Amino acid sequence: MGQPHRHFGLRIGSFGDGVDLVKLQLGLVRHQRLDAVEDRIDRTVAFGFLDPNFAFTYLIYVLIVVSTGGLGSVAGSFAAAAVLGISDVAGKYYVPQIGAFLIYLVMIGLLMLRPNGLFGRR
């Protein structure tokens, strides 16, 4: 995206010309940030990380983790994410026939044992 900006040369060249160096530097920093954001968006779209169905892909997992961990409990959600994630990956590795459904079976089992979630209020 072009040459990097050199602040030292700008300071020497505009030292007595009445140019406000603080405003100039803030403008350059703002321009660099906008370039970085634009570059990030370009790479995200180009490599396919941004998908219209992105939210729906992970929304089910978020709902499962929050409900299994206990509503309003960050520690419960963390524990549920660990238990469900490990059981999901292990199930897909060791039992690939039912690996996709194992996360739901673990969720049902945990909620049958603790209906309010792992660290939910009693």
Give me a quick take on this structure:
The chain is mostly helical and 122 residues long. It has 5 helices and no strands.
The strand count comes to 0
Structural class: mainly alpha
Indicate the percent of residues in helices.
Answer: 55-70%
Largest sheet: none
Please give the count of helices: 5
Task: For the record, give the distance between the C-alpha atoms at the N and C termini, rounded to a whole number.
Answer: 57 Å
Number of domains: 2
Uncertain segments:
none
The radius of gyration over CA amounts to 26 Å
Chain-averaged pLDDT: 79
Features:
5 helices; mainly alpha; 70% helix; 2 domains; 122 residues
Structural notes for this entry:
By secondary structure, this protein is an all-alpha fold. The chain has two domains: 7-46; 54-113. It is built from five helices and no strands. α3 (54-69) packs across α4 and α4 (74-94) runs antiparallel to α5 (99-113). The longest helix has 26 residues, at 21-46. The model has no long low-confidence stretch (mean pLDDT 79).
